[in-house]
């Protein structure tokens, strides 16, 4: 064999047998399924993380145990590459292969083949940092992970119970420690100091900020949120809600960013707390998604989603770049997906370049890296702003010629510190939103009025095989099943302001249909007609056909 510690792996692997008849897949968000069947996956991911580190010359690799906004019984795991970004996609396939080896001998031979074809030098060191969210299954899964790390001889650091973005931050901070690219002190405390320090500078001299309510989804954001609130003190008065991290079944239940986005309503637990006009926001179960909202004078709910955040933030950064005298020297661009509301795309495209990419953070992140400053947000609240290394150098060395330029430059420099450069962080994004609102003296209502969302509808269709659905043009066009797109196009043409697309989900066994139209009832009708087309085209049982499909 290729120098793998076969005996250690063998004996520990026997303690983490793969369940029969289960196929695991490393998808858009890593492995994700019921926590109760993930033990073998965690053990094997521990080994894989160690090997990834060896392959990258001992750089620190991150492992996050979470299932984000999913229900509490679910869990999951994903790997984080050295600069704090998502695992390189070619390794997703290796992860899937290793997770599915049926028993220990098959796992060992798959490992052996993998080490050889990937040319991993096993004599290199392995360093891994890991964390988990608040799910009850997390502790046992972390033990399985630790067995995997032990089997491969990795030097491991337990970052405890923390958010996904903090784990991403730690990975980059550990790998850049003592270099010229040092990202910050490699601790949660270091991260909070970095964010709160930048925030305080950015809002210095502005009017006092009115209290903000944060729905923590009864998840790990409640812990990080409490630490952050302490660092912020009076500069941003925060009230934390839904912090019941040890109440069974409470996680993401009737609360959190995904609840707000999909139900388009206030978490019921906030109805007696939120005052008209007050700003509130929801995090998801691992605090990497953010949704803002408010109630108007009549008590009506208004949602400010990832698209509204992108519009607010991108316009602000463009203004700062101009004010600093850097127009033409630093180009700002926006990345969205097909789910971005058409009104947001129109608003943004009138001001700066906008690119559309397939769903999933990694696609947006990579596209945003091509701009000097890349603002990316999914409508569901994932997102951040990336400043390219050249842009950061420019901001450091640039000599402003007026006091106004100097002020704007200072703000841009502080934004680089405030905004998580590794992955979107709901807490960092929240501070960013608060900075822009403070600078513009906008209330939530004024922010909301930047543009009006086009009425839209999202529908799920259960089909026999979602894998027959293939898309192109950033998921906006179906190429398979053949002929279906033509029928969709014909339908869309009949609706004023109509737009619709169909894509297979990356996380559930369903096909999703999105539709927009000028009038809400028409958006609903278009979505249900397209859903009906999808259902019939793919041989759905006429008896079980959902009655709302037209
Ligand atoms: C995952 C993705 C998210 C995407 C969602 C789409 C990450 C970290 N998460 O949650 O970005 O919006 O999947 O789900 O990439 P769907 O494919 O089921 O529609
Ligand atoms: Mg999440």
TrEMBL record:
Domain Phosphoacetylglucosamine mutase AMG1: start-end pairs: 189-290, 305-442
GO biological process, one term: UDP-N-acetylglucosamine biosynthetic process
The protein's required cofactors: Mg(2+)
Pathway assigned in UniProt: Nucleotide-sugar biosynthesis; UDP-N-acetyl-alpha-D-glucosamine biosynthesis; N-acetyl-alpha-D-glucosamine 1-phosphate from alpha-D-glucosamine 6-phosphate (route I): step 2/2
Transmembrane parts of this sequence: none
Record flagged with keyword Lyase: no
EC numbers on record: 5.4.2.3
Pfam families: AMG1_II, AMG1_III, PGM_PMM_I, PGM_PMM_IV
Domain of life: Eukaryota
InterPro entries reported in the protein's UniProt record: A-D-PHexomutase_a/b/a-I, A-D-PHexomutase_a/b/a-I/II/III, A-D-PHexomutase_C, A-D-PHexomutase_C_sf, A-D-PHexomutase_CS, AMG1_II, AMG1_III, PAGM
Molecular function terms from GO: magnesium ion binding; phosphoacetylglucosamine mutase activity
Annotated Alpha-D-phosphohexomutase alpha/beta/alpha domain residues: 61-90, 112-178
Domain Alpha-D-phosphohexomutase C-terminal: 458-531
Keywords, in A-Z order: Carbohydrate metabolism, Cell wall biogenesis/degradation, Isomerase, Magnesium, Metal-binding, Phosphoprotein
Signal sequence region: none
Details of cofactor binding: Binds 1 Mg(2+) ion per subunit.
Keyword DNA damage attributed: no
Family: Belongs to the phosphohexose mutase family.
PANTHER family reported for this sequence: PHOSPHOACETYLGLUCOSAMINE MUTASE
Listed name of the protein: Phosphoacetylglucosamine mutase
Source organism: Heliocybe sulcata
């Amino acid at each position: 064999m290729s120098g793998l510690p076969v005996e250690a792996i063998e004996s520990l692997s026997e303690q983490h047998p793969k369940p029969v008849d289960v196929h695991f897949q490393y998808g858009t968000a890593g492995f994700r399924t019921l926590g109760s069947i993930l033990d073998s996956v965690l053990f094997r991911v521990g080994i894989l993380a160690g090997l990834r580190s060896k392959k990258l010359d001992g750089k620190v690799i991150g492992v996050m145990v979470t299932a984000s906004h999913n229900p509490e019984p679910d869990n999951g795991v994903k790997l984080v590459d050295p600069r704090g970004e998502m695992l390189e996609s070619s390794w997703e396939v290796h992860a899937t292969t290793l997770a599915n080896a049926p028993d220990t001998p098959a796992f060992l031979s798959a490992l052996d083949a993998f080490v050889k074809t990937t040319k991993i030098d096993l004599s290199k060191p392995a360093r891994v940092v890991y964390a988990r969210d608040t799910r009850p299954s997390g502790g046992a899964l972390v033990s399985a992970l630790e067995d995997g790390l032990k089997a491969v001889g990795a030097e491991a650091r337990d970052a405890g119970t923390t958010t996904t973005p903090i784990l991403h931050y730690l990975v980059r901070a550990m790998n850049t420690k003592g270099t010229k690219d040092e990202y910050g002190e490699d601790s949660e405390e270091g991260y909070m100091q970095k964010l709160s320090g930048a925030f305080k500078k950015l809002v210095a001299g502005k009017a006092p900020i009115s209290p903000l309510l944060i729905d923590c989804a009864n998840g790990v954001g409640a812990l990080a949120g409490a630490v952050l609130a302490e660092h912020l003190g009076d500069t941003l008065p925060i009230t934390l809600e839904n912090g019941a991290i040890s109440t069974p079944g409470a996680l993401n239940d009737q609360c959190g960013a995904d609840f707000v986005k999909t139900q388009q309503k206030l978490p019921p637990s906030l109805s007696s707390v939120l005052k008209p006009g007050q700003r509130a926001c929801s995090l998801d179960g691992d605090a990497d998604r953010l949704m803002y909202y408010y109630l108007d004078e009549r008590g009506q709910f208004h949602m400010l989603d990832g698209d509204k955040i992108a519009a607010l933030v991108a316009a602000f950064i463009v203004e700062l770049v101009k004010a600093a005298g850097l127009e033409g020297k630093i180009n700002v661009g926006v990345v969205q997906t097909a789910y971005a509301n058409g009104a947001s795309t129109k608003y943004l495209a009138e001001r700066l370049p906008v690119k559309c990419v397939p769903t999933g953070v990694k696609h947006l992140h990579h596209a945003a890296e091509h701009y000097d400053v890349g603002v990316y947000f999914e409508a569901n609240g994932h997102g951040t702003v990336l400043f390219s290394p050249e842009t950061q150098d420019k901001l450091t060395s640039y000599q402003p010629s007026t006091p106004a330029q100097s002020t704007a430059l200072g703000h841009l420099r502080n934004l680089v510190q405030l905004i998580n450069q590794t992955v979107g962080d709901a807490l960092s994004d929240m501070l960013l939103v608060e900075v822009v609102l403070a600078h513009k003296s906008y209330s939530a209502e004024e922010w909301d009025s930047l543009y009006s969302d086009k009425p839209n509808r999202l529908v799920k269709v259960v089909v026999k095989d979602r894998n027959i659905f293939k898309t192109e043009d950033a998921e906006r066009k179906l190429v398979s099943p053949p002929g279906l797109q033509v029928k969709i196009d014909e339908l869309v043409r009949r609706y004023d302001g109509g737009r619709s697309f169909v894509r297979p989900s990356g996380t559930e066994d369903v096909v999703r249909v999105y539709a927009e139209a000028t009038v809400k009832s028409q958006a609903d009708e278009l979505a249900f007609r397209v859903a009906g087309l999808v259902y019939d085209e793919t041989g759905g049982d006429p008896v079980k056909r959902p009655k709302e499909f037209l």
